[in-house]
Structures are given as C-alpha cells and as structure tokens.
LCP family protein
Amino acid sequence: MNSDFDGFRPSELSPAENGRRGLLRPKRSARTGDSERAAGSVRRGALLGVQIVAAVLSLTVLVGSGIAWATYRNFTADIRRVEISTHSTAAAKNIDGSAENILIVGNDDRDTATDAELAQLGTTRDGGSYNTDTMMLLHVPADGSKATVISFPRDSYVTIPGHGKNKLNSAYVDGVADSHGNKAAGASLLTDTLENLTGLNIDHFVQVDLLGFYRISNAIGGVTVCLNSAMRPATYTGQIGNGFDSGYEADGSFVRSYSGIDLKKGDNVIRGTQALAFVRQRHGLPAGDLDRIKRQQYFLSAVFRKLTSGGTLLNPFKLQHLLNAVTSSLTMDQSLDPAKLAQQMQNLSAGNVTFTTIPLAGEDPNSPVGDVVLVNTAAVPGFISSLIGGQPAKAPQSPTTADPKTVTVTVVNDSDSLGRESANAAALRKLGFKTTVPPATTDVVQKTTIEYPPGADTAARAVAKVVPGAALSQSDGVSAVTLVLGNDGVQVPSAGSSGGSSDSSSATGQSSAPASASHPVTTNAAQAGCIN
C-alpha cells in the first residue's frame, strides 16, 4: 500500500497526466510497503490536520453557542463512534490532571463520500488508505483558558508497541492489521504510541475522513490566505522547483500538478478544492512536509478566526451546512461529549489557541524504514512540562565546572535578532571557549537555553557561569554543549546588544555544525501575515 500520495489529480489534468502512477520521493517521503495504484485517484496520506482540528473547533464553537445547541441538540447522534482501549502507563500517571487531551487524526477514508463529491475531486471510491498522515494533539487545560495544538510529523521515527521502531503514521495500520481489520484496534495502538512518546494521558480520539475539510471549508464560505509567492502547476514538462507543484514519478513520467493548486502571490480567498490543495501541497515548498505543517496551522488559525467572528453562527443556512459538514465527517471515541468539551472551551479566542510541533532532532535518510524525522526525545519531557505548566529545564547535577579551554560551544541563534550568534561566539572565544556556529535557521524561541548531552554537565555549567539567566537542559538531541539564543535577550554579557557580521566557519576555533532542532516555533490563531 502506497501511503505517500499527498494530493489528488484534479479533473482538469489531461487523461495522460491523470493516468500516471508512482511518485518522485522528496525528503521524508519514503514509506514501507510501497506499491503503485490505479489512475485518477486521490493521492493517499493527503489529509492534514487542518480539516480535523477545524472540525473539532467547529464542533465546540457550534455546541457552545446557544442558538446552535438549542436548535441542533440532537445532531451528535449522527457522529460515528469507536471504542478505544489503551495500555500505556501514561493513563495511570495522568500528569496533567483534569486537562483534556484529544488525539485528532485523519486518513484517506472515503466511506462517507457521495458520488458527486468524488466526481468534484476527480477521484474514485476505492484506493483509500488507513495511514494516518495527520496526527495532532489538542490540549485543553481544566479551566479552558487556552488550547494548544501539537503537530506530529507523519515520518517521526518512534517505538510502536509490539512492532519496534517505525514511522508514526504506520501505527494505526499496524493495529488494524493485528486485529484483522478492526479500526478501533488501530486507533488504540496509535493512542498508546503517542502516550508513550509524550507521557500524556490521551482522553479522547477523533478522526475525520477525506471529505471532512472539503465540506467544512465550503460550508464556511472559504477563508483568506496570503502567499509569499505564487503556487501553480508546471507549464511545461520538467519544470520543477519553488512554487511549482510538479515532479517526476518513479517510472520517469512527469506530473505537472500533484495537488491541483493554482493560487497567486498575496491574498487568495480559498474554499473547496483549492483549500484542500493549499493544505495538501508538499512539492514546490522550500521545506517540503514541514512547510505543509506550517500551512495547516496557518489555515486553522484563519478558520478559527472566521468561526468566532459570528457570521457563520448567526446565518441559519451556513450554520446548517456547517453542522452537516462536521457531523458527516467525524468519528469519535465512545466517551467524548461534545457539549462538555464545548463548555470547557467556551472562553477560547483566537489569541489563546496556539499551534506548535513536537521537538525534532533532524532527519535520518538511512534508517531501517527509509527517510525519517528524528524526535528529540530528551527534549520532549521539558516540552510537555512547559505545556502543562511545569518547569521544563533540567539542571546539571555536578557541583563543579569545566575549564573553558576544554569546552567547545555550538552557538545557535533562534531569536529575531540577526547576527547574535556571531557576537556571542566571539565573546565566548575571548573567555577561552572554542565555538562552532551552524548555518542560520528560521527557528524562533523565547527562552535562551544551554543544552548539553549526557555526561557534559560540567561543561554546561561552565557556559552557564558566563551566560547568567540561561536555562540548562540535558538533551540527547545535541552532541556538544549548545547555546540556543532566544528572544528573552539573555546572552554572554560582553556580546553587547547588537549582532555584528556573520562568523566564518573557518574562523579560529570554529567549524560547521548542525543546528539544534529541539525548540519548536509556537504561533497563535490571532496571527496572520503571509506564508510559503
């Protein structure tokens, strides 16, 4: 089964283009058990978290409004239910008490699609996939004061109970296969896998099928998105690169558009097929699948802002369409009560719904299951602790400090200020440290942190002594002591407030090193702007 298909072949493509099979695999696209499939079908694994979380947020907004609940109080009877049974230790520990954690997934299931919807998407009823290429965790504290949506890349290399290490999106499929087709077993195994990874007790499970987002985006009349550059099909064979949703397949044939996207630079009002293409596109984006995750979070923000603006809820026709779209596309666990969840989330606004991604530690193209994304498992406990209001930093235990002359420090600038890595590296060298400065990234974090691998606590303490105010965190995701500069302004005091010119990797004591990936960027639903 090929789970790498990420777009649908729109009906406007030529019969020859619609008939092609296979896929050129960019970064992180490898899958186990790949095989080609019939022409004209939706590319599997396409469903991203946008439609799913939009459905859940839509549901809570709808139920939470007096008009919607009074008029449609029985609509939840139409939602399909699935019985979840988990076996992880996280459920017993329940580290976040009465908070709600809802696992939200999606796959290319077309059981609920009408013939008209399938025709509109240019696909057929068969050929769907159980691979959950969308996985998000919606965390809502007991007081309902905020909500955080955590994304999990589909290719995250994790331990799946009973199956060893594999890509995260195979957990659901493994569970279904183990139970000879029981979808509840697939949902349970995926839940166990993510509970083991995060340490959180997952209270509920929600799944949305292929047509969920298509229906919801139509029901709300679309939303406005702003693109940094135009996104379109190729205009001639062989045209690929940034902005072109095209590529070569395994058999050497060329596909001019995988998702069917055709949007201009700047503002676009999108709905239906173009909204689906916007959240599906992976080819032609600078960071591939990771840019696609940013798009899903961006689109979710726009959906939530529109839902909470009141226009949809006060229009009886739009409200009815939205209710139908939500209820016809959802599968929930047996105990999730939409009314109770809506009551808990009734005070949410765009400014207190945030989106983030599990801490990552780079890629491994040579794993036993192909190209994978590595999760920074050492940073996950601190990440989760911060999420639920704990203290994320783990301080070194050694009371002594190393001689600066024996310590090499990797300096990473994850702030909005350019050049700080150069100034801080220079200041550290003046204090006797050796330094490395990796290529700049677009990551932004709030707090300056000194990360260090196991066994390097004395070296980390030596750096902490000259960077007062920096947090200390042991991490398996770094191979050397790493000073991650954040937006809080904490740095080597002698570095000054300004950046300076970029350091050359050939400077004394410096060499090239990979950047830290343990600090995911967090955004909230009130933020707009433009996106890749």
